């Protein structure tokens, strides 16, 4: 789960991590009031969306002006102008896709005088099973380019969880970032606090770009992107409260209510599968046969009929879906329950697209009977390749 920059900065404050002073604003009036509480002479007006690249982004609407989603204002009047231009308008960045994201919240921040822009991120490294820090002197808006062109300018260092964070880790990072004097001490303390934050809050990713050295020579975090492990959210109600439903796909919200592992994709073949591995294999084989999946959906190992029904309804309600592939390898999951769920959802919403079903495993005969008795126009398939061929043929026919 992602949170907004202004929420991330609140967490920095809780962990004594230096960041500029600022306030969130949900309306132009609130933006002006927020600016009034800050000293100036420079304010930063920042669009709050769950996507990076805001600085270089562009608004779709002409009345939003030419500049991007992060703007420096020289007066409270200018804060007002920028807030008016941003709120309610759609920001398109390298990370939002063409549709862009509507800006509903702003963050009004005290402007910093920047001497150097650095990069620091932390993530759970699957290879080492440790939290790793990634740093670079080349922070700012082009870090992807740096990673591509000059990967040697990026240093990775992991922390042994048994020994924990040590001052030498922080010093190593400080030297890699070319810090000097009091910044080294600040860096050692900051990285230690960040490590504690990442571990205590079960983050899967933290990205600070830019981490800056100010003209006064202090180290401070000017951006914050945080991603939390959704499997650990049950023990962080305070983080769950930060969830912004407007930033999420409505289908994914519906799926999460039913504990379904669901991800919306760009294609047109809806997939209902049990087991994440089988779901991945199903996506692969659809691509192999020349089409694109509309979603990843894992109903899980032992879903009740209601969850299967909810899952199938989500697929049926997706206008992008031009064909459906049900691929079940029932072990713990019973094929008859899958069949009942599919039939219940189909009866309620109707199926107007081709439906290919491949069932295998526990109670498969009963499952097939239920489907046959339902009167649904189902194309049965014998195995994964057969199923993929049949559904992709059907969808290709539609053109
Ligand atoms: P992103 O483009 O979504 O990553 O948004 P950022 O929060 O990183 O802001 C983009 C850029 O705006 C930063 O890389 C900085 O160069 C600039 N910026 C942000 N805050 C300030 C500030 O307080 N002062 C100055 N001079 N520039 C800032
Ligand atoms: Mn940034």
Major sheet, described briefly? Answer: 6 strands, antiparallel
Radius of gyration: 25 Å
Q: How would you describe the shape?
A: elongated
CATH topology of the largest domain: Rossmann fold
Bound molecules: guanosine-5'-diphosphate, manganese (II) ion
Runs in which pLDDT lies below 50 for 5 or more consecutive residues are none
CATH superfamily of the largest domain: Succinyl-CoA synthetase domains
The CATH architecture of the largest domain can be named as 3-Layer(aba) Sandwich
The tally of strands reads 19
Helix content: 25-40%
Structural class: alpha+beta
Number of folding domains? 3
CATH class assignment of the largest domain: Alpha Beta
Mean pLDDT: 93
C-alpha end-to-end distance: 37 Å
Number of helix segments? 13
Q: Strand percentage, roughly?
A: 25-35%
Any key phrases for this structure?
alpha+beta; binds guanosine-5'-diphosphate; Dna Ligase, domain 1; Rossmann fold; six-stranded antiparallel sheet; four-stranded antiparallel sheet; 19 strands; binds manganese (II) ion; 399 residues
Describe the protein's architecture and organization.
With 399 residues, the chain is of the alpha+beta class. The protein is built from 13 helices and 19 strands. It has helices at residues 5-14, 28-36, 76-86, 143-149, 167-176, 182-200, 237-240, 250-257, 276-288, 305-316, 335-349, 364-373, 384-398; strands at residues 22-25, 43-48, 58-59, 70-73, 90-92, 101-102, 105-110, 114-125, 130-136, 154-159, 203-214, 219-221, 225-228, 261-264, 269-273, 295-298, 323-330, 355-361, 378-380. Strands 8, 9, 10, 11, 12 and 13 form a six-stranded antiparallel β-sheet that branches. A four-stranded antiparallel β-sheet has the order 1-7-2-4, with helices on one face. Strands 15-17-18-19 form a four-stranded parallel β-sheet, sandwiched between helices. The protein is elongated, with a radius of gyration of 25 Å. It starts with a helix and ends with a helix. The model has no long low-confidence stretch (mean pLDDT 93). Bound molecules: guanosine-5'-diphosphate and manganese (II) ion (MN).
């Amino acid at each position: 789960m992602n949170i907004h920059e202004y929420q991330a900065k609140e967490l920095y404050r809780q962990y004594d991590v230096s960041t500029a002073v600022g306030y969130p604003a949900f309306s132009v009036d609130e933006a002006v009031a927020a600016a009034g509480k800050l000293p100036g002479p420079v304010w930063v007006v920042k669009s709050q969306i769950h996507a990076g690249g805001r600085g270089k982004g562009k608004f779709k609407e002409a009345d939003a002006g030419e500049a991007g989603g992060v703007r420096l204002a020289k007066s409270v009047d200018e804060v007002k102008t920028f807030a008016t231009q941003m709120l309610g308008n759609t920001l398109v960045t390298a990370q939002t896709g063409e549709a862009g994201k509507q800006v509903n919240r702003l963050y009004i921040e005290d402007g910093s005088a920047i001497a150097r822009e650095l990069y620091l991120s932390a993530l759970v490294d699957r290879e080492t099973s440790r939290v790793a820090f990634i740093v670079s002197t080349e922070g700012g808006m082009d870090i992807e380019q740096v990673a591509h062109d000059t990967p040697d300018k990026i240093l990775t260092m992991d922390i042994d969880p048994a020994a924990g964070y040590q001052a030498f880790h922080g010093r190593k990072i400080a030297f890699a970032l070319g810090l000097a004097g009091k910044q080294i001490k600040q860096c050692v303390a900051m990285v230690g606090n960040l490590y504690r934050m990442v571990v205590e809050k079960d983050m899967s990713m933290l990205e600070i770009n830019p981490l800056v050295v100010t003209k006064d020579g202090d180290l401070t975090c000017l951006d914050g992107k945080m991603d939390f492990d959704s499997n650990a959210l049950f023990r962080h109600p305070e983080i769950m409260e930060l969830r912004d439903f407007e930033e999420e796909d409505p289908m994914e919200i519906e799926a999460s209510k039913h504990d379904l592992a669901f991800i919306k994709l760009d294609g047109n073949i809806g997939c209902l599968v049990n087991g994440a591995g089988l779901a991945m294999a199903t996506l692969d084989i659809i691509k192999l046969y020349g089409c694109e999946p509309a979603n990843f959906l894992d109903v899980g190992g032992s879903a009740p009929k209601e969850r299967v029904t909810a899952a199938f309804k989500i697929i049926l309600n997706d206008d992008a879906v031009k064909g459906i592939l049900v691929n079940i390898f029932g072990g713990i999951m019973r094929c008859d329950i899958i069949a009942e769920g599919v039939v219940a959802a189909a009866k309620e919403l109707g199926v107007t697209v081709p439906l290919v079903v491949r069932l295998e495993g526990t109670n498969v005969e009963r499952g097939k009977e239920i489907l046959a008795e339902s009167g649904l126009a189902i194309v049965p398939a014998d195995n994964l390749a057969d199923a993929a061929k049949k559904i992709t043929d059907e969808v290709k026919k539609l053109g």
